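Exercise (ungraded).
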Amino acid sequence: MGRSRYLAWVAALAVVAASCGNAPPSGFSSGVSAPGVTATTIKVGGLAAVTGPLGNQYSPAFAGAKAYFDMVNAAGGVHGRQIEMVAELDDQTDPATDVSQARALVQSYKVFAVVPVASPVFSAGSYLAAQGMPTFGYNINPAQWEAGPSMFGQDGSYLDPSGLDVAGPFLAKQLRISTVAVLSYAIPQSAQCAAGQAASFRRFGFDVALVDSSLPIGVFDVSADIARIAAAHVGLVVMCMDPTGDQAVSSALHRAGLTSVAQYWLDGYDQSSLASFRSQYEGVYLSPSYVPFQEALASPGLRQYLSQVSGAQVGEASLAGWISAAMFVRGLKLAGRDLTRAKLVAAVNSLTSFTADGIEPPVNWHEDHTGPGTYNCSAWVQVRKGAFVPVFHQPFVCIRNDASTLAQLANQPVT
Amino acid sequence: MLAHTIVAGIPFGCVYALVGLGLVITYRAAGVFNFAFGAQAYLSAAVFYSTVHTARWPVWAGGLVAIVVSGVGVGLVLDRGLFRYLRSASVMVKLVVSLGLLVAIPAVVQSTGFGSGTKLAPPDLGPTPAVLLGGPGALLDTNQLAVIVATVVIAGGLSGLFRWTNFGLRLRAVVESPRLAQLAGVNAEAVGSGAWVVSSIIAGLAGVLLAPLYGEVQAMDFDTLVVAAIAAAVVGGLSSFSLTVAGGLLLGIGQDLITAYLPLGSTFTQSLRPSLPFILLVLVLVVAGPRLSQRRTGGDPMAGVDPPPDMATRGGAEGSAGGWRQVGLGLLAGAAVVGVGLVVLPQYWLFLASECAALAVVYCSFTVLTGMGGQLSLCQAELAGVGAFAAGQLAIHDNLSVIAGLAVGFGLALVLGLVVAIPALRVSGLYLALATFAFGLLIDNIGFSPSWSGNGTSGILVPRPLIGPVSFNATRPFFVLTVVVLAIVATGVAWLRHSTAGQYLGAVRGSELAAASVGINVRRVKVVAFGLAAGIAGLGGALYGSTLGAVSASNFTFYQSLFWLVIVAITGVRTVGGAVAAGVAVVVVPQLLSLEGGGLASLGAVIFGFGALTYIRHPEGLVVWLHRRSMDVLQRRRRAA
């Protein structure tokens, strides 16, 4: 090929390149504003990680949502319509499959809304938001739920693991501890959590003696960390891992005789994990984002949940499915008989203190789409003699997110 | 402090060493680098858990069944059913089969209902809870002591077996050349089975010993451990047991030293510790690689007595006879299928078809590198990720069109491919595969986490392009775009095959020595192959990203690299048709399985595993095989008529 022909190619490519841009994501344009809705039914579908390495943790979300819909349907439905769950799709814990399954819900199943979503690899947030699809689910994926006003996480849509968190410093203040250590996996979300926790403790003047974000998932050795924890007289160890990792660190602390060091696990409020790792859980503090099951009497919503969901399915995932369904139904009721997606989204967005009948701290959709909100509310439990025991103020300790002094780290009445 | 840190690293070093020993024994005794070692260990751990925890057997009884019964059983099944046919097979065949097992064994275990529902805290080996040796503040507990003792005993036992026993001598002879050994009166079949039994028992032992160190019995945990332990095995040159133990200890102690002495908050430390095994692996391969690869390049000295493979299995490269006419026909047929698809397929299936086309572009990189060049790469998914993230980041931050992003993805991945080619110049065969694997793992662990790259598991958005007034946002036009890109790449690959460079590639694949003897610069050919293949992967990755709309590090993991290679090997690594079929298989099979209410989803892994086995009989790939079968049938009919 001669040089001139190369040049011609390059020139042609340059012309094509110059005329190229990127298409803005466009919305749903079929003209139908309420697909999946008839006079007597509303079709919804869900998406969860059912199979895959962590599948068993997320699939109960379907059971939670279905239990809520069954209850609503048995009582006559919403505005005379029964809610039909027409699809429970499995993303196989694979992000590419997650995207294609979300498209299947929109394009093949033609559901009116997506309820619930529960997957650690949820990647279809921007797609669903661009469709204006009302989507309700388990907010465990940073950024995905913030993609648009039609996306509703069960406890708000904002999630920034590296952001400030006043809960940990509150615990340290309660326990009169001045030195803390933070441990996490080397994977991004876990490491961001560690960075956020460390920054939060420093903001209130605590001494952060150690931040280790280099632990590999699986088996790891923390003996060098433990030695540093002992040397620095750390009083509280904060763990941004799953119960499997947390218990390994706990074992190592116990092995080193550091049983008096308090532990705060950001994940692990789960009865079956507790049953598996009884000795490692002993004394650990946890802060579930809903009323602890042990306090169910105080929450009508939680009593209802426990009566409708079978024992084996009870847990965070099925509760997230239940709350998602409850939020969807609440929106349906508000949206009225003449239903469209836009009306549903507007109705849910008008809620300013949704608690799923007393299960969770108030969700305020005026501020909880893209920010942490005014308050940080969490319940507190400690494991004592193999059981989760509620501690501190009940049911929630609510602290203003703009707190900056130790004195402000105290429960505030939410206004 | 230093002494304390070093001692504290020993139990963990022994974990790596134990798994490393398992890899070395399988390689030395059976001639297979067994990626499925972790899956075998997982199987034993599952048996151990089920007997001790669920059926309430005593620990010794459960352990015995898990180690001896399942070890011997699995060893015999693997040897009699599979590896006896592969004793003289190529590195690629053995690799594909062991990767198939890596996926299939856990799927079979889980299909029995194991692992669904609750957390699976494994039983302790000694007393529960494990007893501290030397009271509080001690470094060791009984579970860890068991691992250390086992590592020492196994390393000593294996060395003794190979050095002083008749069986050991026969093992070495059979791996070297089964035929030669048989001529000397050794029953190669029996010895081969013995090798698999020994290595499977060690896998069983690893499963039982390591299970208590994990919080739960998860197949993925064992695989990750095997991946890290490869470094220990390679330090031992895949042959020395004592050096493998040293490699394991080096890793265990090294990771502890990093935590003890480096500033922990820094990104550097954060990346260094989990990547230490892969850094070590790359270093060992680059420094000692040539010596290591030479050791096994001779192959079976009796291989020459084999008749040459028949034309049917050797051929299969499209266009070898029909040339451009066939390429043209292929394009026409493709255009017809696309046209019909545009009319017939519903929107959702068109989206899936775009995904198939984008993946097919990525898979064309295997066609160039492995099919034409005969080189192995276990990092193509990461290279595709580089393309996807480059296109996405440039679109988000600089508003660069994804069309231009495709070119940038091509270029960036090409440059990285040239970097991968550096070890390729020094090592070959299995060691080359391991070097690319380590490189991919480094990208996985370090490269894809920052927000300017893959943004970790949160990922980034990759928009759809716009050319002039035409938007490719909707499913139909985007489908056409992906197919056009695929057609361009496929034509390019076909052109390459016929070009001088393609002939050089084929010559190097046939025999590096012969290629060099006729004046071909083998090194340059290899570098070109790696660079070009990486570029295609990057371009395909960018297209794939734009198809999905959002991608994260989870889309392009080392696991995907292994998975994709095996899929393309099954459908056909020599032809573009094989690459396209692989794209279709990866996207469509899970969809079909999920149609039946989702109950069949786990069947995918089993299909994959058995698919890998077809590669033994049909290294040309299922596409070429089916094509030839149908041609044969047609011809017979014609003759009959």
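Further reading is listed at the end of the chapter. For now, observe: The first helix of chain A runs from residue 3 to 18. The first strand of chain A starts at residue 20 and ends at 23.
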